[in-house]
Design goal:
193 residues; two-stranded antiparallel sheet; 72% helix; elongated
């Protein structure tokens, strides 16, 4: 790598963001695969996901520049314009999350919080396990079915969001000729187009 290429690099994704991103993916896959057959593994993956999410929320207020919510939460009008520009293959390049990527972070986190918390309710009701077991173990069949439906809905909604996220990463990587997956591994992006 030449000196000019090195000078055109910027450290964007800190170690926690990268750890969070890949750990969340691995834990979600573990939880999804272990769903019915390995309840203990499924539950622990869910607990770890919830712990990661709460840590990420805190990091969104006190973390590094590009990890902060203030750096990537955009108004709906700007998100809509970015998506329109992307569909015309002329979207502006952002060092951190672009408006659609920022919205996706929030949607994924919200969906995963709803997935894991509904799972906590479900395991408390149906299995009399987990931190809510003492409160919910007598809740009844109706509530068990309700939380099972909510849990399954948000699992599938999260999968849809992940597919859209991957498509967005591919499109943005192609438009800006930049390997966004690599930057989420090493934390580095280029400064200029």
């Amino acid at each position: 790598m030449s000196n000019a290429e090195k000078e055109n690099q910027i450290y964007v994704w800190d170690i926690f963001i990268r750890f969070f991103h890949w750990s969340l993916l691995i834990l979600f896959l573990i939880a999804y695969i272990s769903e019915d057959d390995f309840l203990t593994i499924h539950s622990w993956a869910g607990y770890l996901i919830l712990s990661l999410l709460f840590t990420r929320i805190m990091w969104g207020f006190v973390g590094t520049k590009y990890a902060r919510f203030s750096n990537f939460i955009y108004p709906p009008k700007q998100i809509k314009q970015f998506l329109k520009d992307t569909s015309q293959l002329k979207a502006q390049r952002y060092i951190g999350h672009n408006p659609a990527g920022g919205a996706m972070v929030i949607l994924l986190m919200a969906s995963l919080i709803l997935t894991t918390t509904s799972g906590l309710f479900l395991i408390g009701i149906e299995e009399s396990q987990g931190p809510l077991a003492a409160t919910l173990s007598d809740a009844g069949h109706f509530w068990g079915k309700l939380f099972e439906g909510v849990h399954e809905f948000f699992v599938h909604f999260t999968i849809l969001l992940i597919a859209i996220h991957i498509a967005g990463v591919v499109v943005e990587s192609l438009i800006h000729r930049e390997n966004l997956v690599s930057s989420m591994i090493n934390g580095i992006k280029r400064k200029n187009n």
